């Protein structure tokens, strides 16, 4: 998919974090590998600490905590909301959906459209696309986009490939119409034939969770997990990112007449520092324009990574001015895409810590 959106802007971003911090040094003993070998990953991959939600905490909990904060701070009036979009891999229930639960929790009008979308790493880009499309029909309203996951509950703590990088979090982004906004170039690609590279085998209708799927199994590579746990084929995903994303970035820059020099910031999904460094090298992106510190600070929060990276690294700048930015995300699906837009002069941009 390749298109251009017009007269749309991101006006506010709120990040919501759990209060519990997991430290890589403290988790080394969880793994069957020699501690010295495991510690080498700390510098290479950018593992330092990550945020972990409490048992029983859900995406709804993070989203309602954040929305309540926004209403209390008068960031937005309930009457301004035209839709609630929730993009997550971690639904509270099969039904009802998180978006309708939020609509009911805060007593929003019945004409507020509620929509949940199942998407992971590219969730922010997919959510923005849907928000932009909805604004064509709700020009006088604002769209609330929630991106969030609590994937730490679906990853084995004895899996060194996956557990150190994951982080729980949510973001709430406000999108609205703006007649003065510049064009937004958007591109998205998907390849389901490689979807097994990032997968939770059990838990849905194809393979319901049972005592058998919950059994912890040594995988032959030193990692221990069950069929109920998520697993990422690290080498497969790395190869996918290095193969597909640089040509995408080149094409996007050519289509918009931009260059690595004319883009102020590259705000990307954050799998780990090593992957981003290699991507920057291959795509010839100056590392100083590509923040890559999210995993070491909060962990990889799936679809919330781009807005959380922006708030973590550029808060004061985004409140004060506008910048030419390139967003890009890549991962589960498999999916990869990006957009080039003017981003900034936000009304609000903040990260808060919850007790969740």
What does this structure look like?
The chain is an alpha/beta fold and 356 residues long. It folds into two domains: 176 residues, 3-Layer(aba) Sandwich (Peroxisomal Thiolase, Chain A, domain 1); 163 residues, Thiolase/Chalcone synthase (Peroxisomal Thiolase, Chain A, domain 1, 3-Layer(aba) Sandwich). It is 29% helix and 26% strand. The protein contains nine helices and 17 strands. It has a six-stranded mixed β-sheet with strand order 6-5-7-8-2-17, sandwiched between helices. Strand 15 and strand 16 form a beta hairpin. Helix 3 runs parallel beside helix 4 and helix 6 packs across helix 7. The protein is globular, with a radius of gyration of 20 Å. 47% of the residues are buried. The mean pLDDT is 96.
Give the SSE layout.
Elements (H helix, E strand, L loop, with lengths): L1 E4 L2 E10 L3 E3 H4 L7 H12 L2 E3 L7 H14 L8 E7 L10 H8 L7 E5 L5 H13 L6 E8 L19 E9 L6 E7 L7 E2 L17 E2 L5 E2 L5 E2 L1 H23 L8 E4 L4 H11 L10 H4 L7 H16 L1 E10 L3 E10 L3 E6 L3
Parallel strand pairs: 2-17, 5-6, 5-7, 14-15
Antiparallel strand pairs: 1-9, 2-8, 3-4, 7-8, 9-16, 10-13, 11-12, 15-16
């Amino acid at each position: 998919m390749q298109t251009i959106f017009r007269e749309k802007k991101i006006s506010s971003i709120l990040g919501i974090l759990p209060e519990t911090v997991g430290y890589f040094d403290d988790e080394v003993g969880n793994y069957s590998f020699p501690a010295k070998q495991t510690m080498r990953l700390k510098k290479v991959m950018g593992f330092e600490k990550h945020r972990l939600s409490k048992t029983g905490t859900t995406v709804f909990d993070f989203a309602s905590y954040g929305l309540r904060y926004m209403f209390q701070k008068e960031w937005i009036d309930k009457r301004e909301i035209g839709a609630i979009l929730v993009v997550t891999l971690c639904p509270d229930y099969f039904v009802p959906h998180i978006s309708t639960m939020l609509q009911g929790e805060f007593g929003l009008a019945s004409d507020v459209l509620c929509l949940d979308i199942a998407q992971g790493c590219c969730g922010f880009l997919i959510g923005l696309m849907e928000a932009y499309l909805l604004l064509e029909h709700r020009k006088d309203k604002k769209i609330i986009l929630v991106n969030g996951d609590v994937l730490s509950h679906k990853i084995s703590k004895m899996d060194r490939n996956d557990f150190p990088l994951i982080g729980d979090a949510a973001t709430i982004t406000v999108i609205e119409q703006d007649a003065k906004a510049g064009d937004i170039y958007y591109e998205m690609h998907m390849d389901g034939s490689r979807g097994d590279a990032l997968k939770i085998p059990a838990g849905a209708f194809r393979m319901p969770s049972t005592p058998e799927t919950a059994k912890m199994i040594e995988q032959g590579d030193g990692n221990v997990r069950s069929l109920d746990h998520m697993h990422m084929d690290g080498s497969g995903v790395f190869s996918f990112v290095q193969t597909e994303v640089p040509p995408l970035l080149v094409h996007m820059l050519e289509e918009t007449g931009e260059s690595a020099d004319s883009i102020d910031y590259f705000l990307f999904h954050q799998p780990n520092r090593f992957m981003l460094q290699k991507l920057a090298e291959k795509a010839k992106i100056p590392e100083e324009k590509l923040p890559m510190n999210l995993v070491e600070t909060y962990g990889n929060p799936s679809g919330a990574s781009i807005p959380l990276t922006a708030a973590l690294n550029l808060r004061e700048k985004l409140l004060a001015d506008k910048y030419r930015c390139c967003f890009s995300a890549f991962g589960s699906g498999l999916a990869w895409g990006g957009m080039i837009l003017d981003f900034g002069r936000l009304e609000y941009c903040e990260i808060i810590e919850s007790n969740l």
